[in-house]
Structures are given as structure tokens and as C-alpha cells.
Amino acid sequence: MKLDSFGGETYNQTYKWLGNKPYIWETIEESYNLWGRSTGRYGASGAISPPEKLRPSSSYPRYNSATGDREMVFYHPEIQYDSYEDSIRLLKQLGDDTLVELALSFDHAYTLDETQKLLPAGVQPVWFWADAYTPSYKKYLKETRQTIAADSMIIYGFHGEQFAPYGGVDSFINSVEQLRKQGKNFTWEADQVHESLAGDNDILEPGDITVIGVVVTGTAKQLEALQNQAYIKGSTFGVVSNAIALPN
């Protein structure tokens, strides 16, 4: 952090785990003025999509404006999309030891136990996408046929048990219920999640959670085991450890 009488600058170092190795992003620099408001950096913020003329098809990648990495996209199983991205087929174009992050969208909802049994050995699930959408919101998604970006405000889920104490289904349930009771900014969202998932007893329990997608990591060679799996409707790249070799 650098300060002066008119504001200052902050430097944020972020990372995520790819398999058992941390992937370090470049330092993100932001400045703020005398009133504490961030002035951002030159250029766009949020996800970047290619201009219309540069899009190869109706399914096109999104990029993180801060890191240049691919942004993962999910497809809800109850919606019929015009096209589905299939990043799994591109894994063979990467080096075997390249560390890869993939978002997998399922053909329908599965229990957590079923999800873990579906994935081949060597494919590590790091985040589970919960089907936490009310019937009215699913109706809206069907009408718009919107894909759901991994950085969206309307995507809900939880990290794997390996990230305890913040990962796992129990942590997810505790967070939802705490927000419902004590949250100030996200009470409505927590109520929607509870309404979508809770059973007839109106209590949100681990057995109520249904999973419609996961984020997995591993080497390109390990993730090739996902090819031709009938339960996968779509797959999109996230971070790739040597992004310069990522196929278009």
C-alpha cells in the first residue's frame, strides 16, 4: 500500500490452487482518492468478451480483465442452449503436465455422493455448483437461455472438503443459514437458496443439496479421462498454467 494526503494505491496478490500447486496471478494495482473511493485502473473491468467480428461462433470465451485467464461458464441442465462449449476435446492440444481448471456442466442434477462417484480417478473436484434456483428463476433462465458465468452474482455452491474449514457442504449450509438470520446485504439471496434446496421439513440438510456442475483441476492428461462422459453437457476452460499454449 502507498499513501499520500490525497489518497493512495493498493497492491493485491491473489492465487488459486490447480491440483496441489498454487497458481499466482500478477499483482493487481488499484488507487483510491481522498474519500476512499477506488478509481480503478485504465481499461475495462469485469469479464472481457471478444468483439462480434472476432467471435468464432455463438459460443465464445470470456477473459478476466485483470489476469487475462479464461472465465468459466456453466450451462443449466434444464435449459436447451443453441450450442455448448467443449473444452475437454482441446486437452490433447496441451502438454500432458499442463495444469488445467475446467468447469463441467451436468446433464441433470446429482446428489453430492453421486457426483463424487461420477468423476474419474485423478480428476479433483474443487467446487460444486448447487441447483439453488427457484422455479420462477428457472423460468426466467429458460426464456433468456442465459449461460451462467463463474463470477456471476447468481451462482451458488461450495468448495470441496479439502478446503476445510471453509469448504464442504456443512460449511455451505451454515453460511446460508447465518446469512438468513444475520445477513444485511444478502438475506434475500440466502432465502432463495434455502427455498430452492430445503426439504419438506423446511430444514436445509446435506441430503437436500443437488449438484448440477463442478469445477475440477488436474493435469491435461488426467482430465482427458473426462472425454465422452455422458453426464457432461458442456465444459469450459478456466485457468491454464501455461495459458500461452491454450487453444482458441
Distance between the termini: 37 Å
Name the average pLDDT: 78
| Helix/strand/pairing category | alpha+beta
How do the strands line up in the largest sheet?
14-12-15-11-16
Shape: globular
Taking Cα atoms only, what radius of gyration do you get, to the nearest Å? 19 Å
Q: What proportion of the residues is helical, as a percent range?
A: 10-25%
Strand content: 25-35%
Helical run tally: 5
Largest sheet: 5 strands, antiparallel
Query: How many DSSP-defined strands?
Result: 16
The ordered H/E elements are EEEEEEEEEEEHEHEEHHEHE
List segments where confidence is low: pLDDT < 50 over at least 5 consecutive residues. 1-7, 33-58, 243-248
Characteristics:
248 residues; alpha+beta; disordered N terminus
